[in-house]
Amino acid sequence: MKTKFNNSIIKVEDLVKKFGNFTANDHLTFEVKEGEIFGFLGANGAGKTTAIKILCGLSVPTSGKVEVAGYDVYRQTNQIKRNIGYMSQKFSLYENLTIKENIRFFAGIYGMSRKDIRIRLEELLDRLKIENLKNELIASLPLGWKQKLAFSVAIFHKPKIVFLDEPTGGVDPITRRQFWDMIYEAANNGITVFVTTHYMDEAEYCNRVSIMVDGRIEALDRPQELKKTYHVDSMNEVFLKLARVKN
Amino acid sequence: MQKASIIVKDVTKKYGNSTALNGLSLEVEHAEIFGLIGPDGAGKTSLFRILTSLLVPDSGMASLEGFDVVKDYREIRKIVGYMPGRFSLYFDLTVQENLEFFATIFGTSIQQNYDLIKDIYSQIEPFKNRKAGKLSGGMKQKLALSCAMIHKPQVLILDEPTTGVDAVSRKEFWEMLKALKKEGITILVSTPYMDEAILCDRVALIQKGRILSIEEPQKIIVQYAHDLYSICTDNMFDLLEDLRNFSKSNSAFRFGDTIHLSVKSGFEKAELVHYLEGKNHEQIEIGKIDPEIEDCFMELMTDENKI
Question: Are A243 and B166 inside 8 Å of each other by CB?
Fold first, then answer.
């Protein structure tokens, strides 16, 4: 695995996002390096989703400078969308379409050619060993499999960055780990992974993590360093120390 | 002897050709926190829906506090508090309106049972005029629990109440459950978090509509049959695959910043070091450890992911 991450693929400087009087993102400044697995942690309501929406080009900042994959979030949102992948626990795939139909649908949206779709579809079905299931409805699959497929679909068009918003919520321990095997593989293939999770053992799997509290980034470092800084043995303890829920 | 609070006997439920519950039986004692652990699709939600009288079993029987879930469904609904997996509140009503709504349905009022929900509800009360849809995950869970509690149920059934909830809120949530237990309330709860399983009085592992084992969490740990090692090297990415291919390896799983390796008999540490050095690993650290509950459950769960 690469040990050094040099180029910044996400640059955030003084990002502020307000909704009326409420400041959801309060002067965020951070960078994500190309090829790294970046854990974006925080309590519910800390402002993670707001920031992710901005990074994905779905919401415009109140102020600040944000660049994703070299594109500006104010003016170049279409280019951003073309260069990223996204999946969340809440929305992944269309339940009433088959595996194959979902893949063709999403690949089509990203403007992939029919030929490319066909070739990569074969590759994917082969790699996941699900050739025999390609015409099954998504609704018929267990949650763990849906999530694994959703991830495969999110990186099907070979994006530079993939955003994963609580991808393993509610998933059993074995499936969670299989999911992380896939994340490592994607990172190893050069895809930058931006991931949120409430499982603190998963925070340990990241190259670096940030912890958001009340709209601000309170800490950002490699997990080993954070544990040293806060004199604790696990990321769970780091999180409990930092993430006071003030509601 | 007093009968158990929740009794499930030989319950089977099928949806077409697929069997959700396959002759499942269990008993939960009064004021017990009973955890249900199992992969998605194992039958947890079907069981909960039967116990709350929302679904009728094909065969078998179940009762809560002596009331039959089919015959006495009116009684059941009075004594049970249910928090479904999906957020079940009215998003366009405020916090207070939601709570009032549930109180009214059960013929009570917020004032009447305020003591019971005070600890939980007081945390979200400052936001009582906010719409439920605008609450953060942790606050939604607190409101949902308040609504499930407002009619002073004797049995509380919680379907993955902490999924999507952050570590701090989860901790608070479990402190609330312990307080409710002290009030004498029976709690049946499912969770994908193994650190929560250990907080239960007893846990059952459910898979394919059947109970695999019911134990106190500490006993499950004691029963773990293999030697377990925690391993890290300079190359954690390749380490997992290398450990899985090691001849004395039972299983290898990531655990935070190390990998837990369960080994077969005849394992020698020196042999593993030699093997890993041969695979170009450096800074090899191998330590024998006691299993955590998550190790145990992964051992017990057969691979659900083969379809």
Answer: yes
